[in-house]
Amino acid sequence: MSFERERRQLLADIEAEVAFTREMTGRDHLDAKVMRAMYRVHREDFVPDDLRHASYRDSPLPVGYGQTISQPYIVALMTDLLELDANSIVLEIGTGTGYQAAILAQLANRVYSIERIPELAQAARQRLARLGYDKVEIRCGDGNLGWRENAPFDAIIVTAAAPSIPAALLEQLKPGGRMAIPVGLPRMHQDLMLISRDHRGATESRKILGVAFVPLIEGCWTG
Ligand code: SAH
User: Fold this and answer.
1) C-beta 96 within 6 A of ligand 1
2) Would you say the CB of residue 69 lies under 6 angstroms from ligand 1?
3) Known catalytic residue at 70
4) Per the domain annotation, does 220 fall within a domain?
5) C-alpha atoms less than 13 angstroms from C-alpha of 54 in its C-beta half-sphere
6) 96 CA to middle of ligand 1, Å?
């Protein structure tokens, strides 16, 4: 199955959702480059085999270990908020399947992604290598600490809900950089926040939308 029709339908679903939430997000439409990336990355390559038929539903899907691949509309919106260009160096926290990292890799120069669960990190690494995404580097560890060796970053995206913005991530954001992060308690309402750092280093934050993410866990994986 090629999913061509489903892929086009997904773009239409995302556009409809963007229009529906425009009052909250302040966005009428997403950048054409982001929509092209959503079209080019095949979601069926990232979901478990038994859910392949559901790949183009605009909803999160379970991927094992109690984790999910995010809703495509949210993936697209968060990517759009980062305003990436071909020079951008991006840090992602919460690799999961590698789907969001693959979307980022379509737009940026380099993507560093941290995943806490070793099995997911390894599976994502192999999947992205097989699909030819050579701009993505994945590390297993606690994303709350960021990735100091490769900092500072033009953009940071956190794909799990944080109780507050981790200080190390703020420190690793370049002046002029942007961070998209869901802030709030697990299994409760969270706010997708956009943090912008100006060229003098001052940060400004804006609430974008109510969202529901799996939690960003503090510390190391204990199985
Ligand atoms: N971006 C993913 C979906 C993310 S689900 C995709 O495109 O598929 C959230 C992920 O964050 C889960 O895989 C979870 O294990 C991971 N996670 C939770 N806490 C973390 C932490 N402290 N550091 C790194 N990853 C974390």
Assistant:
1) yes
2) yes
3) yes
4) no
5) 13
6) 5
Low-confidence ranges of the chain (pLDDT < 70): 220-223
Does the Cβ of 138 fall within 6 Å of ligand 1?
no
Catalytic residue among 70, 88, 113, 205: 70
For residue 44, give its domain range.
Answer: 4-211
What pLDDT was estimated at residue 6? Answer: 97
**What angle do helix axes 32-40 and 99-107 make, rounded to 10 degrees?**
130
- 202 falls within a domain: yes
User: Total domain count for the chain?
Assistant: 1
Answering whether pTM is above 0.90, one says yes
Distance CA 156, CA 152 (A): 10
Q: How far apart are CA 168 and CA 155, in angstroms?
A: 14
Span 99-131, pLDDT tens digits: 999 999 999 999 999 999 999 999 999 999 999
Provide the mean pLDDT of the chain.
Answer: 96
The DSSP element (H or E) to which 13 belongs, if any, is: helix 4-20
